[in-house]
Amino acid sequence: MKITMLYFSPSGNTAESAVKIGESLKERCGARVQMIDMTCSAYFTADDKATYIKSVVKPHDILIIGGPVYAHHLQYHVKDMINLLPEPDGVTWGKIAMAFVTYGGISS
Hints:
This protein is α/β, with parallel strands linked by helices. It contains 3 helices and 5 strands.
């Protein structure tokens, strides 16, 4: 099983959770996990963000997307990334996807 985990983590909390999830999937399921930290990536300076995402994501069976919750909402960069993802094709882009969010305080 090949899994790609795409996450955005300005404070590091989502990255910490992503690493733990990835390690657990490797240990328990024998999955190969591609970790992509979008926080300080070239995504933000790319002219064509959708093409950038396609260029860094390897073929996978499952896509996992993680991001923080700020002010009761998923952080807008993560929403933008989700909207730019291509349709699943069953070859490069798996048909299974899941998301996780982290939050760091009582106001979230």
